[in-house]
Write the structure tokens for this entry.
Amino acid sequence: MSEPFSVPVTVRGYETDVQGHLNQAVYLNYAEHARWSLLRAAGISQSALIGSGVGPVALETTIRYKRELLAGDEAEVTCAFEWGGGKTFRIEQSVLKADGTVAAEITAVGGVLDLEKRRLVADPAGVFKKLASDPGLFGL
């Protein structure tokens, strides 16, 4: 698995629910933000993906809520890729409070979709390695 990449986020008031803590759906937005930030940091843009005829897809996501986040809280969202030998890969993410406490753990299974065939490509790691200017951010 690659070393975790991370991005800072600040919980905004409109992202909270009636109990005052971060709404469950927003954790998915934070995770997605960290994943796209990692792609950009590695040198992969959306236009480069589309131009190559591929796009990342989420196949499964599990969120484990550990501690609440409140409006104004500062957090870090980590992102690390774990490669196997097949058409899919895992992404391990954590949402960390400013003091390092884990607020949530997010595990996702993803793939790379051939946009013409509408099927997963056989070697997603190879696609990221080819497109990235810094494949080391993916652990490649």
